[in-house]
Amino acid sequence: MKIKTLIFSGLSCIVTTGYAQQKEYPKPEPMRPGMTEFWLPQPRIVTPAEEDVLVAPPSDAVVLFDGRDLSAWQHDDGSAPRWTVADGCFTVKPGTGQISTKQNFTDFQLHIEWREPEDIAGESQGRGNSGVFLQGKYEVQILDSYGNETYANGQAGSVYKQTPPLVNAMRPPGKWNVYDIIYTAPRFKADGSLQSNGFVTLLHNGVLVQNHTLIQGTTEYIGLPRIQAHGAGPLVLQDHGNPVSFRNVWIREL
Ligand code: MG
């Protein structure tokens, strides 16, 4: 009888403890922006050629900006872009919101030139921030990363908050930078699960900074990338409150 009681109380102790542990299992801490930022190592600096010759679009390219107007673009509500067009380029007008191409794309080769203001203002992510969102979901970061330290996976040429650039090939403020982006879109099954991954290759001023890099999922400022089924999508240029300029934008569907 004594033994039985001992076994019983022992068992109930285990059961109770197990139950209590299950009940008290801690909830994960809510994610903060800093949790997906890493600062070291900083990509080493490579000095690109001083400035590129303007690469005119090839015959099969869809020209998204030829120096004249933003007729290929729109704000989220469908209105005409209120960004400034002048001197053969267009510039973010802070506060007006992002712009998207009217046309949707899947796999493509994109050429886009961008320039940071010569008058430096702000620091880290607040200095010359914009971005190219591939299919409206995956940001290739645009930032004034010339002598401007920030987290490595948030500097110019990064797949934002995912993969830092292999090197920092930034030109100084006031000079034109060039991105040549080769993008393979992810594919999804009918049930919304991932069928095949997306990849991005990026040349920054002719220097390879992303080499067939896996797209881990959506760009998130807070939290981890998410797998989210989608079809063809637009290119989106970010209004992050800084007057970044663009010119010579063209795309080739693959
Ligand atoms: Mg950005």
3D structure, described in words:
The chain is mainly β and 254 residues long. Helices cover 9% and strands 31% of the residues. The protein is built from one helix and 17 strands. Strands 2, 4, 5, 7, 11, 14, 15 and 17 form an eight-stranded antiparallel β-sheet that branches. The radius of gyration is 24 Å and the shape is globular. The protein starts with a helix and ends with a strand. Mean pLDDT is 92; it is low at 1-18. The chain binds magnesium ion. The site of magnesium ion has 8 residues, from strand 8 and strand 9.
* Ligand names: magnesium ion
Strand content: 25-35%
Structural class: mainly beta
Major sheet summary line:
8 strands, antiparallel
DSSP strand tally: 17
What is the terminal separation in angstroms?
80 Å
Computed Rg: 24 Å
The percent of residues in helical segments reads under 10%
General shape: globular
Specify the number of helices: 1
Average pLDDT value?
Answer: 92
> What letter string, H or E per element, gives the SSE order?
HEEEEEEEEEEEEEEEEE
Which assembly state applies to the chains in this document? Answer: single chain
Low-confidence runs of at least 5 consecutive residues: 1-18
